[in-house]
């Protein structure tokens, strides 16, 4: 039977590339988003992928969103926890609000979504959870204490949950993209971006499709023995041990 995939933050950037790649592979795809209706409408129009608006930081809203998706497309077999934001500031200027927004949207979201599809995956004996972390969750980044903490948290979450899902056919993995050419990175000041590109041995930013193809592999039946893994996709900018 055709499997159903939920991609959080699936309407633009890396998430949209994941949504499109999964659709091209024959999955039923639900793309979630947070607030940008215009982009979501465009995504629906251009791809034919159904888009669902709910805040991944809000447990109840996620529950309602998942119920709507499952009513439309069937039980969710594969979750890609991709939605994320940055609220950068050096720590001495970071506010509690900046801290909480990033922890809630980038980390607690993974609990909110995964917890509400987990029982079904266990019962059906198949599931794929793919968390999108970041190079900056692996190595830390100046001005991103909140984001680095949230993204490192996703790596620990993955390692623990992989052990719980293993006997039930549910794999849990984390993908750590390096700098990928999306709006999030285009917002970085030009001079800073130049120095970032200079530090990438491959000599360029990554493409959203290069993250999507890793997710598609991890979601496949072939990847059943890969679980608890941290997959680094960063052009050798940071080589984790
Ligand atoms: P974008 O900013 O391009 O897209 C973010 C997506 O997340 C949008 O669809 C957005 O919806 C959605 N979103 C944001 N907040 C919420 C929310 N509260 N509830 C539901 N959806 C929400 O991000 P990228 O594509 O650049 O990044 C995707 C993921 O990859 C993120 O987790 C990011 O941290 C990670 N990453 C990105 C890197 C990069 O270089 N771009 C590098 C490493 C990791 P809406 O349009 O409605 O706002």
UniProtKB/TrEMBL annotation:
Provide the Gene Ontology terms for cellular component.
cytoplasm
Q: Does the keyword Oxidoreductase apply?
A: yes
Q: Which InterPro entries match?
A: Acetoacetyl-CoA_reductase, KR_dom, NAD(P)-bd_dom_sf, Sc_DH/Rdtase_CS, SDR, SDR_fam
Q: What processes in GO biological process is this protein linked to?
A: monocarboxylic acid metabolic process; poly-hydroxybutyrate biosynthetic process
- Asked whether the UniProt record includes Hydrolase among its keywords, one would answer no
| Residue span, Ketoreductase domain | 3-183
Sorted keywords for this record are: Oxidoreductase
GO MF assignments? acetoacetyl-CoA reductase activity
What does the similarity note say? Belongs to the short-chain dehydrogenases/reductases (SDR) family.
What is the protein name given in its UniProt record? Acetoacetyl-CoA reductase
Organism in which the protein naturally occurs: Hyphomonas chukchiensis
């Amino acid at each position: 039977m055709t499997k159903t995939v939920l991609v959080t933050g699936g309407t633009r950037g890396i998430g949209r590339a994941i949504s499109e790649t999964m659709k091209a592979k024959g999955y039923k795809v639900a793309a979630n988003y947070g607030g940008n209706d215009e982009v979501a409408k465009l995504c629906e129009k251009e791809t034919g992928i159904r888009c669902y608006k709910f805040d991944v930081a809000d447990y109840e809203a996620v529950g309602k969103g998942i119920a709507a998706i499952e009513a439309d497309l069937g039980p969710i077999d594969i979750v890609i926890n991709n939605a994320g934001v940055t609220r950068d500031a050096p720590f001495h200027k970071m506010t509690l609000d900046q801290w909480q927004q990033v922890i809630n949207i980038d980390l607690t979201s993974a609990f909110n979504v995964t917890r509400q599809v987990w029982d079904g995956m266990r019962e059906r004996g198949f599931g794929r959870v793919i968390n999108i972390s970041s190079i900056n969750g692996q190595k830390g980044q100046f001005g991103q204490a909140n984001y680095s903490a949230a993204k490192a948290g996703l790596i620990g979450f993955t390692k623990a949950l992989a052990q719980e899902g293993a006997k039930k056919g549910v794999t849990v993995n984390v993908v750590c993209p390096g700098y990928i050419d999306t709006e999030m990175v285009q917002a970085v000041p030009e001079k800073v971006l130049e120095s970032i590109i200079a530090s990438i041995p491959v000599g360029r930013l990554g493409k959203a499709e290069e993250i999507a193809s890793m997710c598609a592999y991890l979601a496949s039946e072939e990847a059943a023995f890969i679980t608890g893994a941290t997959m680094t996709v960063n052009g050798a900018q940071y080589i984790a041990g």
